[in-house]
Specification:
The structure holds two protein chains of two kinds. Chain A is elongated. Chain A is mainly α. Chain A has a domain of 44 residues. Chain A is built from three helices and one strand; from the N terminus they run αβαα. Chain B is α+β, with helices and mostly antiparallel strands. Chain B folds into two domains: 62 residues, Arc Repressor Mutant, subunit A, CATH 1.10.10; 46 residues, no CATH class. In chain B, strand 1 and strand 2 form a beta hairpin. In chain B, helix 1 packs across helix 3. The longest helix of chain B has 15 residues. Chain B starts with a helix and ends in a 14-residue tail after the last strand. The chains are: A mainly alpha, B alpha+beta. At the A-B interface, strand 1 and helix 2 of A face helix 1, helix 4 and strand 9 of B. Strand 1 of chain A pairs antiparallel with strand 9 of chain B.
């Protein structure tokens, strides 16, 4: 990508805006409710996997990467 | 989270969702009918648990994801209402929570969200891996 070459920035993880919106419905679902609890690492990774986010970037294991 | 911390967290989120831009200890205490000292201590516990991020010596909410408590380049706009978001993802996330509208970002970027469809379908770039999101949440 020309922008990366021009700026020297790292590519990181690039995801479609539609996927990020779809993920948000799960990731932020219930967040306004008093009884909301954060997902466990297992639950969070299941959300990522559900939306096709399966690269090491999305692993929550401290030993990943 | 303690039951009180759950209530404080929900109050924070309710205030942001309702369109309050600046959410601090005083605002939450008045809104919830609570003592400011108790709310301040709750703010710190919530921050320690990464439920929120704080500024102004812990007295003000900087981030209650996906809402930003400070002006940023990213906004979600729905009808007459708008909210500051922490990043492009969060601008989309606010709309996923609160309804159709536009996610507005840097350099005039605008994504329209209608009935679950984002148009145009652009790209979001993330640099910090998920397991390191909270290492430096401001940078993330």
């Amino acid at each position: 990508m020309a922008w990366l070459a021009e700026t020297g920035e790292e590519r990181g993880e690039v995801v479609s805006s539609q996927t990020m919106f779809d993920l948000s419905r799960d990731w932020y679902g219930g967040r306004l409710e008093a009884d909301w609890s954060p997902p466990t690492a297992t639950e969070a990774e299941a959300m990522f996997t559900k939306h096709g986010l399966t690269s090491d970037f999305w692993s929550l294991s401290p030993t990943a990467g | 989270m303690t039951p009180f911390d759950r209530s404080v967290r929900a109050e924070i989120y309710g205030l942001f969702a309702g369109g309050v831009d600046r959410v601090d200890v005083g605002v939450v205490a008045r809104s919830g009918g609570w003592d400011e000292v108790d709310v301040g201590l709750s703010f710190q516990r919530l921050a320690d648990e990464h439920r929120i991020a704080l500024i102004d010596d812990g007295n003000r909410v900087w981030m209650a994801h996906p809402f930003s408590g400070v002006p940023t380049a990213y906004r979600a706009v729905s009808g007459e209402r708008s909210w500051f978001a922490n990043c492009a993802w969060d601008s989309l996330a606010i709309l996923s929570m609160l309804g159709d509208g536009e996610a507005v970002g840097e350099d005039g970027l605008v994504w329209k969200v209608s009935q679950g469809v984002v148009a145009p379908d652009g790209l979001v770039r993330l640099v910090v891996p998920a397991r390191h999101f909270w290492d430096d949440i401001g940078f993330t």
